[in-house]
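We examine the record.
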Amino acid sequence: MYTDVRVKIPDEKGKVTRKKIRGTTYIYYQTDRIYDPEKKYSIPKSTPIGKLCEDDPTMMIPNEKYLIFYPEA
């Protein structure tokens, strides 16, 4: 994780989600959806791209995966 850099959370609808794990909110980027014909619904595949800043809910601390999906940052 990068601890000295903060970036704005991307505004892509349906691609960027939040998940709270043990009190910490992580930002995930959805890479794919895989349809399960047995269950008859799709299962999203996502990867974490950073951690939510505690003092500002619009900013995040990115990790190395963030630069893969957002190289212009």
